Amino acid sequence: MKISVVTISFNQAEFLRQCIDSVLNQDYPNIEYIVVDPGSTDGSREIIDSYGRRLVNVYEKDAGPADGLNKGFALATGDIYCYLNSDDTLLPFALRKVADYFCSHPNVDVICGHGHIIDGDSNFKRNVFSDKFNLKAAAYGSSVSIQPSTFFRKSVFKAVGGFNVNNRSNWDGELLIDMTLAGARVDTVNELLSCYRVHGESITGTGRLVEAHKYHSKQMFEKIMGRPFELSDYWLMFYFRFKKHFSNPKALMERIRRGPVFGTEES
C-alpha cells in the first residue's frame, strides 16, 4: 500500500527541513512525497531541491492553499493520501500505523488520529485529540479532526473532486464534510500521529483568518443542513459544544490542564 504525502510550502524555510525529514525518515518504505511551492523567496526552494529525487517538487503558481494541494494530489499515485503543512511534522512510525489500520479495516475510507501541539522552537505544549466525526456536530463546529493526523483513500478524494479552491480558511474541514456526504466511512483512531505547530506566523497562532473561517463555516452548515443558519441554531450550537467536551474526556482534561489551542503560544 503506497502512501502519498503532499506538503504545500510558502516561505516557511525555518521549519521546512524538519517537516520534510519527518516524512522521509518514516520507517514505512512505500512513500511518495510531493512538495508544492508556488514561489517562495526565503530559501525554501533551495531546501526542497537539496533532496533531489527523494521527493517530487511542483513549482507552479496557485490560487491558494487548496488549489496548491489539488495540484499536488493530481500527481499522486498512492492508495492513501495525506497532507502536511510545511511547519508541521509526522511523528515516528505514523505511516506504518496508518497503513496497518487501512489494511485491517478495508471498509474505512478516512482515519483521524491525534497529535501534539508544538511551538516555534518545537517545544511540546499540549496534546490535541480528534473527535469522533459526526456531520451534524460538524455543522455546529463541534466535530474537530486534527488535520495533519488525517488520512484518506485516493478513491474518496477523487470522488468528491478534491479541495474547494474557494475556501481559503478551513478547506481541510470542508473536504472531510464532502467525503462524508459522499458516503465515506470515517474512523477516529487512538494514535498520536503528528505535531501541529502553533507559532507567531501560523494561521492558528495569528488568528488572521477568523472572519473567513466564520464565513465558510456558515457555508458548510448550509451544505450539511440544507438551510441557512438561524438564530435558534445558537442553542443547538451550545448543546453540541457541551456534548463535544464531555464525549471526548481526554481532550477536555487537556484543555483544563493546559488551556485552549489559541493560547498555546503564550502559555
Explained architecture:
This protein is of the alpha/beta class. It has a single domain (3-263), classed as Spore Coat Polysaccharide Biosynthesis Protein SpsA, Chain A (Alpha-Beta Complex). The protein is 40% helix and 19% strand. It has 11 helices and 9 strands. The chain has helices spanning 13-24, 44-49, 65-74, 94-104, 135-139, 154-160, 171-181, 203-206, 210-225, 233-247, 249-258; strands at 3-8, 31-36, 56-58, 80-83, 89-90, 110-118, 124-128, 150-153, 186-197. Strands 1, 2, 3, 4, 5, 6, 7, 8 and 9 form a 9-stranded mixed sheet that branches. A hairpin with a 5-residue loop joins strand 6 (110-118) and strand 7. Mean pLDDT is 92; it is low at 263-267.
What is the compact description of this entry?
The chain is of the alpha/beta class. It has eleven helices and nine strands. Helix 1 (13-24) links the parallel strand 1 and strand 2.
Keywords:
single chain; 267 residues; alpha/beta; Spore Coat Polysaccharide Biosynthesis Protein SpsA, Chain A; 9-stranded mixed beta sheet; 11 helices; 19% strand; globular; disordered C terminus
